């Protein structure tokens, strides 16, 4: 499951990595690119709960086979895309298929691991996302340099089919084919209600606090190409650095949350943690002003490092306030809300990039976590 989340992020980040070349060859604008990202994000947002129900009904083995088959075909189909509509359609189908990633990961962990090992299982399976973002430039850049951007999408399709072959063997495990009924004792935590401030506080911290990670992933390559005149090859050699901050951040902030906020249960500890993350997010507002390639990479690294803290902290906050039986829904709502914010904001970011208003775009992206912290703090105060 770590591998499938890694592959999902390779598939979605290949377009972002190769965006300078693709936009040049297809004559797409940055605003159109933003809408293409939105097509993926809206489909991904809607697909998370849908796949959760499908996996509950038909099981992880068949469900993940269907989902990965769908998104693998969609990923390879990018090689045939030539304009706004075709890229948007391929992206939307990719997003719908990838909506099964984290519901499938969580369900696999619950079905195959005893309670005392599940936290480590979730950490490993979820970390594949940031790992995929990290290694995409390393493995896709030489493929694109040799075979062009269309060849890169053929490559991602081949990787997906390789995983399907592996999954066909691994998923023969009895606990995946015939999951046993849940016999665990009820855990602490309440029921989930849309009228509950806790759920909206969680969504605000997750979606708004984690937004800079998506902004850097989708706009970083375009910024370096358009503002700093870096070639596609130069960008590919270093664009693994910001996602490294995301990967490190997951494990670092997970430890911090356990150590200083009682695993998310301490409200005062979470307030201090989120405020610290807010402060670490603000330096990203300077990216549009710096002239140094290295300094911009360092600031992007810091932005993604802080975004990982918001995501981990938000999930821990929710997990301590709801029963474990709601964990799948919580995971889906968090990922879906983050995707919804990306879908809403990315076209505007693309428009600012078309206008070459890079300082304003990065400044606004850095302020989104401020809004997230503010909403979380207001809603958290209402919780009795």
Task: Record keyword descriptors for this entry.
384 residues; mainly alpha; Growth Hormone, Chain: A; 2 domains; globular
Describe the structure.
The protein has 384 residues and is mostly helical. It folds into 2 domains: 1-177, MFS general substrate transporter like domains (Growth Hormone, Chain: A, Up-down Bundle), CATH 1.20.1250.20; 193-384, MFS general substrate transporter like domains (Growth Hormone, Chain: A), CATH 1.20.1250.20. Helices cover 80% and strands 0% of the residues. The chain is built from 16 helices and no strands. It has helices at 2-17, 19-26, 30-58, 60-77, 84-98, 101-112, 118-170, 174-177, 197-209, 211-228, 232-238, 241-260, 267-281, 293-319, 327-354, 358-381. Helix 3 (30-58) runs parallel beside helix 6 (101-112). 52% of the residues are buried. The model is unreliable at 180-188 (pLDDT under 50).
Which architecture of the largest domain does the CATH hierarchy give at level 2?
Up-down Bundle
Largest sheet: none
Which structural class do the helices and strands define? mainly alpha
Q: What is the chain-wise order of helices and strands?
A: HHHHHHHHHHHHHHHH
Which homologous superfamily in CATH is the superfamily of the largest domain? MFS general substrate transporter like domains
Number of domains: 2
CATH class of the largest domain: Mainly Alpha
What is the averaged pLDDT score? 88
**Which stretches are poorly predicted, pLDDT < 50 over at least 5 residues?**
180-188
Proportion in β-strands: under 5%
| Number of helices, where a helix is a run of at least 4 consecutive DSSP H or I residues | 16
Which radius of gyration do the C-alpha atoms yield?
A: 20 Å
First and last CA, distance: 38 Å
User: What is the overall silhouette?
Assistant: globular
Beta strands, count: 0
The proportion of residues forming helix, as a percent range, comes to: over 70%
CATH fold name of the largest domain, please?
Answer: Growth Hormone, Chain: A
């Amino acid at each position: 499951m770590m591998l499938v989340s890694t592959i999902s992020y390779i598939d979605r980040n290949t377009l972002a990595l190769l965006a300078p070349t693709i936009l040049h060859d297809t004559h797409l604008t940055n605003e159109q690119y933003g809408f293409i990202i939105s097509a993926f994000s809206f489909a991904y947002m809607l697909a998370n709960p849908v796949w959760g129900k499908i996996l509950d009904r038909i099981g992880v083995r068949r469900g993940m086979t269907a989902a990965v088959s769908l998104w693998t075909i969609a990923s390879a189909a990018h090689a045939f895309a030539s304009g706004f509509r075709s890229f948007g359609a391929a992206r939307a189908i990719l997003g719908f298929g990838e909506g099964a990633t984290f519901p499938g990961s969580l369900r696999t962990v619950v079905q195959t691991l005893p309670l005392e090992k599940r936290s480590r299982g979730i950490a490993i399976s979820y970390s594949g996302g940031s790992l995929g973002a990290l290694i995409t430039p390393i493995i896709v850049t030489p493929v694109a340099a040799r075979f062009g951007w269309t060849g890169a999408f053929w490559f991602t399709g081949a990787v997906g089919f390789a995983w399907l072959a592996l999954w066909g063997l691994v998923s023969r495990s009895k606990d995946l084919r015939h999951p046993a009924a849940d016999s665990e004792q009820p855990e602490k935590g309440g029921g989930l209600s849309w009228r509950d401030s806790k759920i909206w506080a969680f969504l605000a911290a997750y979606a708004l606090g984690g937004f800079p990670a998506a902004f850097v992933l989708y706009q970083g390559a375009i910024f370096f190409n358009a503002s700093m005149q870096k070639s596609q090859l130069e960008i590919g050699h270093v664009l693994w650095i910001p996602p490294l901050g995301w990967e490190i951040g997951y494990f670092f902030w997970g430890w911090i949350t356990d150590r200083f906020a009682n695993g998310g249960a301490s409200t005062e500890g979470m307030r201090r943690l989120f405020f610290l993350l807010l402060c670490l997010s603000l330096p990203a507002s300077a990216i549009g002003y710096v002239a140094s390639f290295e300094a911009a990479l360092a600031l992007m690294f810091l932005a993604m490092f802080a975004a990982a803290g918001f995501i981990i902290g938000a999930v821990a906050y929710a997990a301590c306030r709801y029963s474990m039986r709601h964990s799948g829904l919580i995971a889906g709502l968090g990922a879906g809300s983050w995707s919804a914010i990306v879908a809403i904001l990315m076209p505007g970011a693309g428009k600012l990039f078309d206008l070459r208003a890079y300082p304003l775009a990065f400044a606004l992206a850095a302020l989104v976590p401020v809004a997230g912290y503010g909403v979380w703090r207001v809603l958290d105060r209402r919780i009795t």
